[in-house]
Amino acid sequence: MSTISKSRDAAQPLQRWALWWGGGLFSVAILMRINNAIRYRTGNGFDAVENVQYIELLTRSWLLPSPDAAWATAHPPLFYYLAAGLWHGLVEVGGQGDFLLILPLLISLVGLVPAFVAFRCIGQLAPGDTSRAVMASALLLFLPVHVYMAPMIGEELLATAWISLALWCALPRAVGVSSEEPSFPQVGQGFAVGVLLGLALLTKMTAVLVVIAIVCAWFIQAVSAGHWTSAIKSCGVLLVTALAVGGWYYIYTFWTYGYLYPQDLAVHQKIFEMPPGHRVWLDYLRLPLATFRDPQLLNPDLLHSVWGGTYDTIYFDGHRHFLAQSLTITRVGTALTLLGLLPTLAFGVGMLRGLRRALSEPGGWDTILLLTTLFLLMGYVLFTWNNPWYATVKGSYLLGLSVPFAFYTSECLMNWVRQGRAQAWLVSGLLLFWIVGVAVTFTIGPVFEKPDGPGLPWQTVVH
Question: How far apart are CA 251 and CA 33, in angstroms?
Fold first, then answer.
């Protein structure tokens, strides 16, 4: 028997063990989401009442309302039309009374797409590394922002699903981070990515940043290999398709109302009164201890820390739209945000490794994933600068980074696990504590409930 055959035989039990673990974690994640979709109060979600109001408008008329007709009508319309279509379908079978149950269940199902894409991407990159594929998927299944957004009625998870699928389709087909014979983007690939990004644009404007990232990555790949024709054709098809599928909405809005993005509409007057009301560059450099000691965004220090607030809404519920406002919850938040330092550090280290690969061999997986990360972070900085209110500091606005996060974090964590038994036990133990902590905290009912209303009492904050 050859050495390769022996190594494959030895690896099979580990792969089966990883799949068993993955199946167990996936089952827990599914049960959490079903439970939460059933028990979560609709009115607690981010802008949920306003989003339902938009859906109700469309159930009475399919005409596209003006951006200032209601709070949410300034949003791209795909999610709301799909939800209105669901309502009409339920009316046909006499099930409209279950609309506010079925819609969160479907959103929760859509929210699993990034975890599936992460699993498949790792499987394509490293077919034998089942453990890493399971870890990449689990990181998203139990990331608090993914869990608490699942039962909320809104477009975030649908947009994240489109973006994740688009990234998967845009990645080079060759196995490996890069290849001596890279597979250049084909016209069909450009069309598929264009359709997905067009749907993403029709769901959330953030997708335009992913369009730019993928087009830039494909051109970098072409320049490095001298295949200009391939890049021009593929990028042209991508842009035209995305414009036809989703860009028409922004053209229509600009033509009709004079703007691409609805900024400072009168219907949004309430948000203009929220703290802090202004931003300075130091807000992007501060990371106060309150990030861990008091993870709620009305803490005076966190009001002036964009990344601290963002961190608390990724690894915890910093806005308290899912969890109750209590001292116990704050202490739990301290534990979860401290445990979140491990995957955050791994993500950073993984990106640095990816950057080295991208610089040495441009145009591969790393180029696309890193450019996507860069443009989404830049867009988030610009958005929070122009909208200087605590309510706009949300980890959910960075859900488009799900696939890059899972990709680089799982790479680094598995590298640490494989460096020795002691390190493996330490890393695995911390991750297990984190997963158990998230499962216990973010499953409504068994341990924690939310008897109070949504959000934080920002009206009492002086700014």
Answer: 37
